[in-house]
Structure formats: structure tokens, C-alpha cells
Amino acid sequence: PSEMYIVKTGIVELQNNIGTRFIRCLHGTFVGDMDFILEREHSFTAVALEDTQLLCLRRAEVLRMLDEEPRSGARLQLALCRGLALAVRDVLIDREALVETVSVMES
């Protein structure tokens, strides 16, 4: 996809293609970041569980930020790395999450 999102308000639940819930995203959480970075189609469906506002980050805007605003771009990269590291840590700690994550990726 050419965009990813940040949850500004509300709660977003991510589900795989058969409706299995696998993560809830709260304020400040990236949604679609892995697929954005890997430049692949979304591997989940996002469902708002309450009134929700998202900030959309388009690839062109992110690339411009990295080029023209290196400090802001570095903060964005650090936030993305932190989020991905936390997700990997959670998968390694919770074997059920690992099974769900693998099945989503194989779909």
C-alpha cells in the first residue's frame, strides 16, 4: 500500500481474512506499517471499535519528510522501529500470537 495510519483517537482492531482478531491498536499506534514498509498489500482488515480518528501518512509525504525534514523523518523512523520491535517481542513472548501471525502471513 502507499499509505499507513496512526490512531489519533479511538480503538482499531486488526483481523485476518477469516475474522480472527489479533491486535487492538490504541492512541499513537501505527496501523499498516509493516505492509507499508514491505510495499505489499494489506494483510489484515482494520475495524474501528468506537468513534476513531486516523492520521494518514502517504508514501510520497513520508519520502518528502525524510528528504526535507531529516529530524522529523528520524523521529518517524525511530517510532516505526520501536513499534515493530514491540510487535516482534510480543510475538516471541506469546506463542499463540506467533501461530496467528504465521497463519496471517501464509494467507
Short précis:
By secondary structure, this protein is an alpha+beta fold. It contains four helices and six strands, in the order ββββαββααα. Helix 2 crosses helix 3 and helix 3 packs across helix 4.
Total number of beta strands:
6
Shape, principal axes of CA atoms: globular
Strand content: 25-35%
Instruction: Tell me the span between the first and last alpha carbons.
Output: 17 Å
Oligomer: single chain
Separate helix tally: 4
- Percent helix range: 40-55%
In order across it, which strands form the biggest sheet? 4-1-6
How is the biggest beta sheet arranged? 3 strands, antiparallel
Sketch the topology as an H/E string, one letter per element.
EEEEHEEHHH
Describe the protein's architecture and organization:
This protein is α+β, with helices and mostly antiparallel strands. The chain is built from four helices and six strands. It has helices at residues 33-38, 59-68, 70-93, 95-106; strands spanning 3-9, 12-15, 21-25, 30-31, 45-48, 53-58. It has a three-stranded antiparallel sheet with strand order 4-1-6. Strand 2 (12-15) and strand 3 (21-25) form a beta hairpin. Helix 2 crosses helix 3 (70-93) and helix 3 (70-93) crosses helix 4 (95-106). The chain is globular and about 40 Å long.
